[in-house]
Amino acid sequence: MVKRLVWSGLLAGVSALSAILAQRAAAMIWRRLFEEEPPE
């Protein structure tokens, strides 16, 4: 039971980190392609 809770927490944390990194990478690519801030 505890291992499942730890696994769920770890998975949620990694997913959140991945989403943040993907958003930053996409914004960086957008800035290089269009030389402007990405739309919100």
Q: How does this structure look, described?
A:
This protein has 40 residues and is mainly alpha-helical. 82% of the residues lie in helices and 0% in strands.
Short description:
This protein is an all-alpha fold and 40 residues long.
Layout of secondary structure:
Elements: H1 2-34
Describe this protein with a few key phrases.
40 residues; mainly alpha; 1 helix; rod-shaped
* CA-based gyration radius: 16 Å
Question: Which structural class matches the secondary elements?
Answer: mainly alpha
Question: What's the SSE pattern?
Answer: H
Molecular shape: rod-shaped
Strand content: under 5%
Oligomer: single chain
Count of DSSP-assigned helices: 1
Q: What portion of residues is helical?
A: over 70%
**Strands, count:** 0
Mean pLDDT: 97
Low-confidence stretches: none
- What is the first-to-last residue Cα distance? 40 Å
Describe the largest sheet. none
